[in-house]
Write a structure and sequence with these properties.
112 residues, cysteine-type peptidase activity, Peptidase_Prp, ribosome biogenesis, Alpha-Beta Plaits, five-stranded mixed β-sheet, 2 helices, alpha+beta, 40% helix, globular, hydrolase
């Protein structure tokens, strides 16, 4: 199962980090559309943030694992664009989880 964990700031509800772990095991390696969908959405979001905001997220990635902490920027408009892209990622991953609930789970937690 793929587990998506989204951490939000208790103060302002912004996404402060996310982690995606595991494998869907929906199909054989190379044919797993669930894994491919989650990977495309998450890696695409990290790439979009860098390209559209100029902010390189500190992301770590290896097989079955992607994690990033979201740095707060001095420019509020950049923070807003980053958050919009992250919220878009959350919606897309939740959509995948609704369709493939045996294979993907999205969790949210608050950061104290």
């Amino acid at each position: 199962m793929i587990t998506v964990t989204i951490v939000r700031s208790a103060d302002d509800n912004r996404i402060t980090s996310f982690a995606i772990t595991g494998h869907a095991n929906f199909a054989k390696r190379g044919q797993d559309i669930v894994c491919a969908g989650v990977s495309t959405v998450s890696v695409g979001t990290v790439n979009a943030i860098e390209e559209l905001t100029g902010v390189a997220l500190p992301a770590s990635m290896k097989s079955g694992w992607l994690q990033s902490d979201i740095p707060l920027q001095a420019d509020d408009s950049v923070n807003e664009r980053i958050q919009l892209l992250l919220e878009s990622m959350r919606v897309m991953l939740q959509s995948i989880a609704v369709s493939y609930r045996k294979y993907v789970e999205v969790r949210e937690q608050s950061q104290s």
